[in-house]
Amino acid sequence: MTATTAPRGWSYSLGKISTGGWFLIGIGIPLGGYLVYELFDDPVLFFQTTMKSFGLGSVYAIVALGFVLIFKATQTVNFAQGALAASGALFVSYAVFDGHIPFTTLRNPLIEIEPEWLGWSLSVVMALAFSAMLGLLIERLAIRPMVGQPLFSVAVITLGLEIVLRVFNNDAVEVDFRSLEIPYGTGGFTVGDAIVNWSYIAAMITATVAFVAVYIFYRTRTGIAMRAVAFDQEAAMAQGINVGKVFAIAWAAGAVLAAIGGIFATQPPVKQTGAVEPETANIAFRALPAVILGGLDSATGALVGGLIVGFAEIFAGQYLAGQTDLLGPGYTLIVPYVVMIVALLVRPYGLFGTPEIRRV
Amino acid sequence: MFGRPNLYTSYDQEAQIFPTWSKKIAVGLFVLTLFLLPFDVPLFTDEIPVLKSIPIIGSLIGEGIPLARFLGDETWLRPISLVLVLAIAALGLNLLAGVAGQVSLGHAFFMGVGGTTAAFLGGESGDGLYGLGLPIWIWLPGAGVAAALVGILISPVAVRLRGLYLAIVTLGLVFLGIHLGNTSWGRKFAGAPGLGRRFQELDIRIWKEDVPLVNVGDDGHWLWFDVTDNQKRYLFLLVATIVMALLAKNLIRTRTGRALQAIRDRDIAAEVMGVPEFKYKVIAFAISSFYAGMGGALFAALSGQMLGTDYNLFLSVEFIAILLIGGAGTVSGTLIGTFFVVMIPQFVEEITKWLSGKEGGIVGTFADGVLAGPDDFGVIATGTQSPGWQLSVFDWNIVLFGVLIVVFLIVEPLGLYGVWIRVRNYWKQWPFSY
Predict the structure, then answer these.
(1) How do residues B276-313 score in pLDDT, each as one tens digit?
(2) Cβ contacts of A150 on chain B, cutoff 8 Å
(3) Do the chains contact at B169 and A341, CB–CB below 8 Å?
(4) Contact A254/A70 with Cβ under 8 angstroms?
(5) Crossing angle, helix B415-429 and helix B331-355, to 10 degrees?
(6) How far off is chain A from B400, nearest CA to CA, in Å?
(7) Residue boundaries of the structural domains of chain B
(8) Does the interface predicted TM-score (ipTM) exceed 0.90?
(9) Which of B321, B401, B410 sits opposite A142 (nearest CB)?
(10) Where are the alpha helices (DSSP H) in B161-228?
(11) Of A254, A294, B277, B406, which sits 20 to 30 A from A162 (CA to CA)?
């Protein structure tokens, strides 16, 4: 027998590099070289930028996880995630200031009082509960009736919800931004000469916890049910899975993750003020490239995509600042979208997304 | 009398744009009404005593209720002209999303490309702005062609993606477009951020400095009519919309249109049947962007100002809402949807203004005295600054718009076109129910 083709393992071990692969190598090697040069040029700045990137990437990962959870269960992108994030942050602000939560001591700008961790944490828990309820309400009123309808219609419904929620959120913060009174504030600490904000660390820890929680959740009974629903709604229903309950859980969890993302959206890597503003809701649109980059239905993808996008945005902001004249002010905000478009040229379903199986 | 609408004796007959006599007459009368709309049609103004003598209607005309003084009123021409402009762009999205099934959230971006190109081709240079000052017969198609070229440029990415991935990537284009307009070189075309640049009038002239054949910017006198600038603009846009709508309707019935529909229904099956998917998706993007570019140019011409941030995500969402409310895939549905989406907020605004007591109605007095302070009617704040949860009229319009999208999709997924189909079928079979 004559071997007309190469042995089976060959194409896997060495492989032919695709056009997209060459493309990535072509971009990656000069980019990596430049970054190594920068690392040796000013290590302190490089370290500071890296920490900032981790902070921003973690915030994107948290918001992206919310997208992924809802997509996994309902097969639609929830465009209302941004408004839910802003609502969550607003709930925290309301709970801290008007919630009459025990153990809350408001910081007075004149008398420096140590922030009260316990009271603030209770406020956050209460606010997250409210966010979950908001998510449940939306799911029950607007999403449940659409089971079996075209998926794009559901996505457009969430766009409509975003518009409505945004008006109410903006109304509360249009004139005066609402502070969140986060105990560690917007300050930071120094490592050597590099400044690291507390919120970067907090975002990293929260993203890790959220990712692990989602990972464990996927292995519980409900999580398996959710994956079954993601695989085939009708078949899952036929197996006795309560699809409505899965939807509700996904929306509640998604709204909570959005709210956490909203809290971080008022913090340094994203905003310096530590207060809810009309722009807080934009965090979801800024995180969308991360979701798409990682793949709409992959939790790992959300984490990796979030970090990639965060790194790209912060590093571009740091090392391309000299080119602002050419790139235009605020160019960092479109870096995620450029990264996303380039990545989708190579992988149309994101890095970790499941390709849709198409049949005639 | 009207024949048998479902009986076709030849293929040509079935492929007609308006297949039945009743449809031809109805569309003809409708278009005629649209042409007469901006003029003081005596029947509907209070100059004719006949209508005034009818008890209820007469009093309504006298009171100046928005719905009744609708036709004769100059201020209503602006929103209706806006309907026509957005209808042109919406027709483009209908071809892409409704007919070819490629849902794009980036329509506002292509409109922006068209608007900027038109401002560059037709506008004057100076003040750090580029401009060529060319006549309308170059800048209007030029806007469409430029947008179509950008559409072709983007389609290699877009063709590979499907569903929500495509929607989100095209959403990215909107942010990208607004940003490009803000860069130091983008400003030379699009004007300073937040200010924009002045947009030229719709004047029709042969070459740059010629005396205009039709002077749209000023009031004038045609035959025995006095025409104002708003009326001229409206008529121009009406002709443009009718031409574009007929072209779209024609495209759907051609080979290209059938190929696009096949791709929408099942792309793999279409490819198996010999429809080149890539080619037709690129064509769909190009044509859709062409419509969007022309719409974007006219959009700027209508407001007299080209402002980059006007072509934002909200505009894109508005187009998606137009398609879903009107009924995706049909030209008439798109036109109805545009009318609905643009005009409903206008009606609501008129009605809330009327209710808020400025005209001294009973409801207004009640509101003044009981519900709220002297300036507010219930939850509607009439001042510019809204206190607490009292949203301004403008905010309520946005809320209403969002709620409208949600409720429509839940209650009537086929849109207004679906309602029309049901009503038509009911009367077709009347008095039998099946």
Answers:
(1) 999 999 999 999 999 999 999 999 999 888 888 889 88
(2) 413
(3) yes
(4) yes
(5) 110
(6) 8
(7) 19-72, 77-311, 335-434
(8) no
(9) B410
(10) 164-182, 187-190
(11) A294
